[in-house]
């Protein structure tokens, strides 16, 4: 008792290759003007053949571990959020364990909550640390969505990018600081709103699954847009109420980076000025579970997460899933 679970280090990894809207306009019938006005995205990073999510994750995590003043030997729990992992089995977390040289015996596993994955992973790791069996946890969001995009579908291929972000969790001495709480949820009513239908046991790889392009992201954009705004606004109100906080006590909001218009609508609906939102989707696109830790690392390095201030994290994603978290630095 009397302790808190806190973020003690952060790191991020963006692949070097940049794919601009102009580059995309050479691949599909789209334009920089359409993508920028409808989404706010200008460019995204694309991982190379030798940069699977485990590689991006390991690079982000190495930075986070050093930032925390720790070494790989100090990490005894790794929870990794991804829906584009290196392979169905083993988990990407175990591949990262090997790349980083985490000690044998560390608990390592993946979490699938799509773009809400980082918040789900954060809450799982927080609860496991709070239960007292682990000392330091790595929480990572790592994705290579470019491998699951239909580069003939202009409605989806312009939206996503690759990357990874990581945080290290440890115990803090001040119970008033650290992760104040998380609120998670799911609504599995219509999985077809956002999915990759092929490649699992329901539709294993076959000539038919290839022909019907089932191994790529399928999305009903308008419905997902509406869900995103409603679910994140409700998740924000719920967690603020739980902690008896008002929106003017929130100095920074880091929401999932999917579409600038979603963030603008959220800002309006919650009554939180847009300049308190971290926005980096113009440079990264939607990196799914990596988007929040990537933005968090950038915000921290830019000095936007000051001691004593409260940050609100908000996510939504396929499932559909959603979540919120509050952190006092
Ligand atoms: C995808 C999204 C940007 C589309 O924007 P929108 O304003 O809803 O646009 P619509 O889907 O209604 O399409 C409008 C038109 O633009 C066209 N269009 C779609 N993508 C296009 C592109 N890349 N370039 C040019 N035109 C495009 C459509 O074909 C449609 O044309 P039509 O009117 O002739 O049929 C928006 O719905 C969105 O961001 N949704 C949320 C998606 C999301 O966040 N997903 C990730 C979840 S983690």
Give me the number of helical elements. Answer: 11
Show unreliable segments: none
| Rounded average pLDDT | 97
- What is the CATH superfamily of the largest domain? Thiolase/Chalcone synthase
Please state the overall shape, judged from the principal axes of the Cα atoms.
globular
Number of domains: 2
Ligands, ions, cofactors: coenzyme A
What can be said about the biggest beta sheet? Answer: 5 strands, mixed
Order of helices and strands: EEHHEHEHEHEHEEEHEHEHHHEE
Structural account:
This protein is α/β, with parallel strands linked by helices and 329 residues long. The protein has two domains: 4-175, Peroxisomal Thiolase, Chain A, domain 1 (3-Layer(aba) Sandwich); 179-328, 3-Layer(aba) Sandwich (Peroxisomal Thiolase, Chain A, domain 1). The protein is 33% helix and 24% strand. It contains eleven helices and 13 strands. It has a five-stranded mixed beta sheet with strand order 1-7-6-4-5, with helices on both faces. A four-stranded mixed beta sheet has the order 8-13-12-11, sandwiched between helices. The chain has a two-stranded antiparallel sheet with strand order 2-3. Strand 12 (310-317) and strand 13 form a beta hairpin. Helix 3 (53-67) crosses helix 4 and helix 8 packs parallel to helix 9. The protein is globular. 50% of the residues are buried. The mean pLDDT is 97. The chain binds coenzyme A (COA).
